[in-house]
From TrEMBL:
PANTHER family registered for this protein in UniProt: OBG GTPASE FAMILY, OBG-TYPE G DOMAIN-CONTAINING PROTEIN
One Pfam short name: MMR_HSR1
Gene3D superfamilies: 1.10.8.470, 3.10.20.30, P-loop containing nucleotide triphosphate hydrolases (3.40.50.300)
Residue ranges of domain OBG-type G in the record: 5-274
The protein's name: OBG-type G domain-containing protein
Keywords: Nucleotide-binding
Length: 415
């Protein structure tokens, strides 16, 4: 099944970007079919947790995804991740990996900015103490804005002349310039609508252009701020400062290294742990709850027992989870992603034949996608005779899909 959209992970060296990426792509503690981990050195498959359609119909026991897993109606859906390497101050001027960093970044539909909230690494990722991580958030955005604005201003005179000569709209002219960043005319139109500019493009001054570029950056690169290393003693004061400066709806608190440790211990049979949860069960816990076998779990040594107790106190009980699962969920929420379940048999929700397994496939589409958009994503240019929704009701191809509405579809091919 198709795996766009693409979520880019950015972060300075030693911020924990690699740990975050590893924890998002590690499916070792799950059940189900997880055939993809790494696509190439920069791309990998992560797993977004959603509420599966099977729970609406009481079919959780028969839900068997082709990819990912579904446990009690909670489904892990593959989503493509991009490791955007080379973030250093001055990237837009070619420093570090410079142009490659920005070129990779333009492919992303949303960004996860992994920030070392402990303040123990400086702007270049070197060990220090007392660094202000709010600076990192500001200069990532500044790098993107300066990159786009620099490219625009370099040829602004000729852009204006052509705009007037061909009598283009502002959307048409800007889309010609912004298409290289993976933009669409709809993205440009939303940007200008939000600004409500009165003056025509040929009269824009540099201040107006600056406003346009900043608004376009927000629209094209919605960014989750993943404040990592929340278990560090210095993290609290930095979290408080950043929370006053940034939109709290964009912030997720996380500890990637804790998530990796918990999944490793679960895989090795020392604990029971579900990703994204605040609960850990050990052999001792289960025996205390009346299970004389301890759930078949292995006994922890003192070192790991103490580490788990500290992790409970410093992360799980304080913050509700390690935050890693929530990071990807927040990115999906920003994009307004809608899970759609294509089936062959709209009555049984199976993929056809005698199989009793249901909801084998799931694709993620962007908000405001139509049934026709979903069909093109799944079937390409194959001709569609008609589309059926739940109950065998015909669904128009211009209908919008949303959670619980037009999100279970059966496509009947024409000739």
């Amino acid at each position: 099944m198709p795996r766009d959209p693409l979520i880019g992970l950015v972060g300075k060296p030693s911020a924990g970007k690699s740990s975050t990426l590893n924890s998002l792509t590690d499916a070792s503690s799950k059940v189900g079919n997880f055939p993809f981990t790494t696509i190439d050195p920069q791309r990998a498959i992560g797993y977004l947790q959603i509420d599966c359609a099977c729970s609406r119909f009481g079919l959780t026991d028969r839900c068997k995804p082709n990819y990912g897993a579904c446990v009690n109606g909670r489904r892990s859906v593959p989503i493509e991740l991009l490791d955007v390497a080379g973030l250093v101050p001055g990237a837009h001027q070619g420093k570090g990996l410079g142009n490659k960093f920005l070129d990779d970044l333009r492919h992303a539909d949303a960004l996860i900015h992994v920030v070392d909230v402990s303040g123990t690494t400086d702007a270049e990722g070197k060990n220090t103490r007392g660094y202000d991580p709010s600076v990192d958030i500001a200069w990532l955005r500044s790098e993107i804005v300066q990159w786009i604005k620099g490219n625009l201003m370099e040829k602004w005179g000729s852009i204006k002349r052509r705009h007037v000569a061909v009598k283009a709209t502002a959307v048409e002219t800007l889309q010609n310039q912004f298409s290289g960043y993976g933009s669409t005319a709809a993205v440009v139109a939303r940007t200008l609508d939000k600004l409500g500019l009165k003056e025509p493009l040929e009269e824009w001054d540099e201040e107006t252009i600056d406003r346009v570029v900043n608004a376009f950056t927000d629209e094209k690169f919605p960014t989750v701020i993943a404040l990592n290393k929340i278990d560090h003693p210095d993290a609290d004061k930095n979290i408080a400062k950043i929370a006053k400066m940034q939109d709290p709806n964009k912030i997720v608190l996380c500890s990637a290294i804790s998530e990796i440790f918990l999944r490793k211990m679960a895989k090795q049979g020392y604990i029971r742990y579900i990703e994204g949860s605040e609960y850990i069960e050990t052999r001792e816990d289960l025996i205390a709850d009346g299970d004389p076998t301890g759930g078949g779990l292995k006994e922890l040594d003192d070192k790991n027992r103490n580490r788990i107790e500290n992790l409970k106190d410093m992360v799980l009980y304080r913050f509700g989870s390690t935050g890693v699962v929530q990071v990807l969920s927040k990115a999906a929420e920003m994009l307004g992603l809608v899970p759609v379940f294509p089936v062959r048999n709209i009555t049984t929700f199976s993929s056809g034949g005698s199989s009793k397994e249901v909801f084998r496939d799931c694709v993620l589409v962007k908000k405001n996608s139509t049934v026709a958009d979903v069909a093109r994503k799944i079937l390409g240019d194959a001709p569609i005779a008609y589309v059926e929704g739940v109950g065998g009701i015909r669904v128009s191809e211009d209908q919008i899909v949303s959670v619980g509405k037009n999100d279970i579809l059966s496509f009947k091919l024409g000739k």
